[in-house]
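User: I'm curious whether this sequence folds into something compact or stays loose and floppy. Could you predict its structure so I can see for myself?
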Amino acid sequence: MKAVMRLVWCGAVAGVLALSAGCSGEGKQTLAEKYPVQSRTCDALFGSENVASLREILGQDDLRFTNRPMAVSELTDGLIKEAQGPYNEIEGFDEYDVCWLSGDSQFHSTVTWAADSLKAVQSSTGRWHQVGRDVYVTAPSYVSVVFRCEIKGASRGQQAQVLLEARVGDISSPKFSEQFHEQLAVRLARTVRDELRCINEPEIPADLKIRG
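Assistant: Here's the prediction. I'll summarize afterward.
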């Protein structure tokens, strides 16, 4: 009987230890496990290889997403709804934080219908430069790509002047090159264009002419 009791006791202790080990292992979750929605959205918009490079630049030890969870479908649904509805001059357009990563430094990227109209961008040659038909770029700390994206069901008069804007922030790291910054901006603009299925099919060039 004592032998049986010892076996039962040992089994109970082993179970507790296994449960404890499982709990302690929870702190070793991957970034995708901790932030499943943000990870999927970031990968979809920028490409998993680019995101892997971003993680290396930002440092792997304490990486976290600082934007709220938002699927790509929520982004596109919001943009389409704004394009098809009346423009609120007081509130303006929503700005969608699509991929914000924080580690040793920070990475920010947003998508929005631009505050500046096509006419305003065309007349502001000191700030914006043209890289394609109705496609313009400015590159201070953020690389911003604006372009016409006609949405099915939207007012043609409004769509004639409204631009879509994809913005990718700089990272304070010598590992973050201008070439990679440009690559991320191009990928984000092209992905959002494709997800929205812009009727006018704007061509986003690979060379945004931001490098000196």
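Summary: The longest strand covers residues 143-148. Residues 1-11, 13-25 have pLDDT under 50 and may be disordered.
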